[in-house]
Structure formats: structure tokens, C-alpha cells
Give the backbone structure.
Amino acid sequence: MSKRPGGELASRPLHFIWIADASGSMQQDGKIQALNNAIREAIPHMKKVADDNPNAQVLVRAVKFSDGAQWHISQPTPVADFAWNDLPAEGETDMGKALSLVAEQLKMPPMSERALPPVLVLISDGQPTDDFDSGLKELLDQPWGKKAVRIAISIGQDADMDVLQKYIAHPEMKPLSANSPEALVKHIKWASTAVLKSASSPAAAGTDHPDASPAAAGSPIGVPAPGATPDPTATPDPNATPDPNAASAAAPANAGAAVPTATDPANDQKTVDDVW
């Protein structure tokens, strides 16, 4: 491990930000309660990952968006001290304003040049009701916003998957679909453990400044990508010989992580109750 003035990399900050939809539609079918429960259940797992990865000081906070956007938990809080306060749900879906709010905090200052790439988890059940494109541009115009690991989780059938894919802006990462509380718990846990583990690894610490490697900006470092959903229109070849190396060749760098895949019950909506 490389050394720096002042010691090793142990104290480098890693900002983890929940960007949560708190619009009125989240009141329906218990979605906001399920989101609150899922994040609360994930916190002990986040703490364990942070304890096991001394390369980073994990700092957690949260933005909520409905009529406008506000910091739900404004102070970057060490994960060991982090507690979730339940979100209420009402109003519109001002997602663009939420991204603008996050973009302001990814400027330098307040962000440090010594930070690790932040993790930004966007969760929504609908379509933006404000200028999403402007908010996304503000986020991606910031070097740390462009280099951030951006994860998106859709809740229910009405979420705008195209918008969530634009937010991710990475060809190998797709939005995670949660059509039940069980699937939401699984995806939230993945985002707060497997992704956090990868982002806080020594490999992610290789770039000090977000501008140091423009070619890598926007590419999550070592983050295991959820498996792509198979094409339902494709016809399998009955004469094809299975390749025993195919699974290992396609495995992500962090293959040991609990990664949702196309065969995972959380993604296979035939195996879970389709509540939303």
C-alpha cells in the first residue's frame, strides 16, 4: 500500500449518500414503510463492512425529495454512529433538485481531495416532476459526482427506468427493480454492503483526486455489477454446449459479494409476491 504524508490510507473519507423518493406515491401499498425498514435493517451490515475495511472512514447521510429536496440527515455521520429517521411521504417527485443538492456537497470544498469515490444510491417509485436533466448535469459536472459510484433502485412498476439509467450513466450497471418489500430489502442490503465494500477497498484508493484519471471517471472501481436480465425474446439453441468457464469469465472482480443476479429471487419476480 502506498504511503502518504501523515500516514497510511486508513482515514480517507468515503461519503455514502441515500437519495430517497419521499413523494406522495410512496404512501401507496406501504412503499415508504418498506423503504424505511430496508434502510434500517441494512445499517448493522454497513457497520460490519466498515469495520472490516479500515482503508476508509465511512460517512453516511441522506437526501429526501418530494416538493423540492432537503437533507434528511445533513451531517456526514460516521457509520458507527448512524441511525435512520423514518421518512414521511407526500408531494411531488423533484428528483432533479435532489441531484443538485448532492452536487453542491461534492464540490471541493466541502469534499476533500483525499476522499474515496462517493457512493450515491438513488431510490424512486416514479417519474421526475422537475428538471431532472439539469440536476443530473450539475451532478456530473462535478468531478466527484462523475467519479461517484451511482446505484439506482426502482420501486414498483411506475418507476422511470430510462431516467434511472441516465443517472447511473454506466453501460455495465443497470437499475435494480424492487416489486416487493423482500426485493427492496435485498437490493438495499447489496447497495450498502457489496458496493460499500468495493468502494472502500485499497483498489479504490488508487486515485487521490477526482480529476487524476479522467478516463476512469464515472466507472465504478471494482464494484460488482448486478447480472443483466436475459432477453425474454431470445430462443435458446438446444444444440449448444454449455461453456463451463462462462460463469467465471463473466464474474465481477468482487465475485464473493452478495450480488443480485437475474436468477436471484429478488430479481426473478416469478418467485416473489409482486406487491408493487
In short: The domain at 12-207 is CATH 3.40.50.410 (Rossmann fold). The two ends are 47 Å apart (CA to CA). The chain has a mean pLDDT of 80.
